[in-house]
Amino acid sequence: MKTLSVEEAKQQLETLIASSMNDHDHFRVTSDEGTVVMIPEETYNNIIVTLELLSTPGLFDSIKKKEVIKTLANADLLDTPEHAEVM
After folding, report:
1. What pTM did the predictor assign?
2. Which residues does 2 contact at the CB level (< 8 Å), separation at least 6?
3. How many domains does the chain have?
4. CA-wise closest residue to 38 among 50, 25, 51, 48
5. CATH number where 25 lies
6. 4/50 Cα distance (integer angstroms)
7. In what helix (H) or strand (E) does residue 7 lie, and over which residues does it extend?
8. The domain containing residue 45 runs over which residues?
9. Fewest beta carbons within 10 Å, which of 25, 34, 38, 59?
10. Do residues 32 and 44 share a domain?
11. How many Å apart are CA 16 and CA 70, to the nearest integer?
12. Same domain, yes or no, for 69 and 45?
């Protein structure tokens, strides 16, 4: 992630936006008031959805359990009917 001062970012704003949108580049912009990060909106939205899903109690464990069962079934290590409904 490239770091720029607020003055540099102002001068290059259109270029930074294009680079962020087209190449999915991320930028850190610093000022006396603090630091902000510039990322594409799609990346931001994906981060928010991921955080929401990860904060759902039990969801991650449920997904992992289904992945393990599916992997075992694909390897022909499971052949019982009750496992089929999990997949």
Report:
1. 0.60
2. 25, 26, 27, 28
3. 2
4. 25
5. 3.40.1620.10
6. 28
7. helix 6-11
8. 1-55
9. 34
10. yes
11. 43
12. no
